[in-house]
User: Fold this.
Amino acid sequence: MSMDAHPADRNGHDRRDGATGPAGQEGRSGHGDSGGRGGPGHEERERRHWRKWHERRLETITAPYGPLSLTATHWLDDYPEGRIPAVPGDWRADGDVVLTADHGDGLTVDGKPLTGSVRLGADHGPIPGARVGYGARRLVVMRREGLWAVRDFDPDSPARQAFAGIEVTGYDPRWAVPGRFRAYPEIRGVRVENADGRERGLGLAGEIAFALDGEEHTLSVAIEDDGSLWAVFADATSGNSSYRFRFLRPPAPDGDGTVTVDFNRALLPPCAFADHFICPFPPPGNTLTAGVPAGERRLRAR
Assistant:
């Protein structure tokens, strides 16, 4: 699957720029508790869950085809002659993507050397299973709002070699608060700037309301295919002691709309790990006035 964020929304926009594959699953709260119920035993269980979540996150981030391995996103409209920098073959958008190569190019499709032409659709599965390979690299075909691109994932990327870890705040129960999900009457499509400087559509299905230190807040959210929620947010620490924005992935709300809003599991977006992701910025209203010094904060410097 694409690693930027999220599945296609109900307006037909592809919102997947940001999910980080398995980490998208692990980024959710991973339990059904609706708030900070229980005593010390409950808190210790949550700390153990959080430590396991953080370990899995690091495994996903540092995997050979994790977000650190993305070295380029090539939009085919920028290369009408069909030649992509540092990538062999001829790549042209023609309904789908038509890739032409000969044996000397060293490309494989479905594990077999490519000689001639093949028509490719968008890759939606895990990066290692992408149809096109170039040695250890995986060339992933993607589409955003009708435009085709090819992403180059390289296990030997400089970012992966230089990774020094994530600054993360350990579990604190004060940052796991009860919330309530309120669905919008219909999906609200908004245009937001993305990390590459372009505006793209974002489909929002509702909002979650919660309180931090006695102050009421709301975040607009999308709904994933499994019913869980996804928010892009900033707060008073953003751009200072935390990355400029982060993701939050609460679990599916209960039948009455109750849901745990757990900022201990705030996620760095994929564009924090590689400049070539096109993560969406927070939509209007999703910048909290409160500071949230919780969860993943920013990359560690060497």
Remarks:
- Confidence is low (pLDDT under 50) at residues 6-16, 18-36.
- The CA atoms of residues 13 and 20 lie 18 Å apart.
- The first helix runs from residue 22 to 26.
- The two ends are 30 Å apart (CA to CA).
